[in-house]
Amino acid sequence: MKKILLAAATLLLAVACGTPASKPEQTATPVVMGEQIDLQRPAAVGGATINEALWNRKSERAYTAEPLTLEELSGVVWAAAGINRPENDHLTAPSAMGLYPIRTYAFFKEGVYRYDARENRLVRVLEGDYRAVSGAQPFVATAPLNLVFVADRSVYDGRNIPEEHVRYLCGQDAAGYVENVNLYAAGHGLKAVTRGSVSPELLPTLGLDPDRYLFALAVSVGK
Ligand SMILES: Cc1cc2nc3c(=O)[nH]c(=O)nc-3n(C[C@H](O)[C@H](O)[C@H](O)COP(=O)(O)O)c2cc1C
Fold it and tell me: Which atom of ligand 1 is nearest to the CA of 171?
């Protein structure tokens, strides 16, 4: 009896602390595009090995219209910007000086969502198909998922960092997010491409002030 109680308490603690889900990955739950999308915690074990993912990684720009499942979407978003150390809210991707300027937006056919890493959910900011605004190439407008990384320059305020270097740091931070996605995709049978090109309409569409925010990088994902 004592053993059962101990196991139950350990499981509860793991769930509360946001440690990896221990059950094997399922890959078939459809995403319901509501006001928010509650994402799943990716399992500790899943996908190809790191070496296999590195061997597989390549840029792919042609996707079917098939949307990602909830499991795939959860894995991709968590790979990009998920918290992997709940004790200090640090992410799967590193950040220069730990300042985390990057906001993650997800563009789907049905709408645009912002990732809330603490709650591990996507929160809708716009309804409708704005995918074309998230890039500058035709395939972006039909890609099942475009993740766009927008940097908030204000995190560097008061640090006397030249503007050019701020832009560099934002790009470097975003590159980590994007490469995590590239490798996650390569390790889970998905296709992806890094994108540095974007429509000039991006910031106005998101209602973001260009004096404070800048487009850092994007990644398209599909099958
Ligand atoms: C910073 C950066 C920006 C990129 N921007 C784009 C882009 O806007 N559109 C695109 O189709 N590919 C883009 N790429 C992908 C490159 O074209 C691709 O990595 C390169 O051709 C090498 O091919 P590989 O990734 O298959 O090795 C970008 C890659 C990087 C690293």
Answer: 1
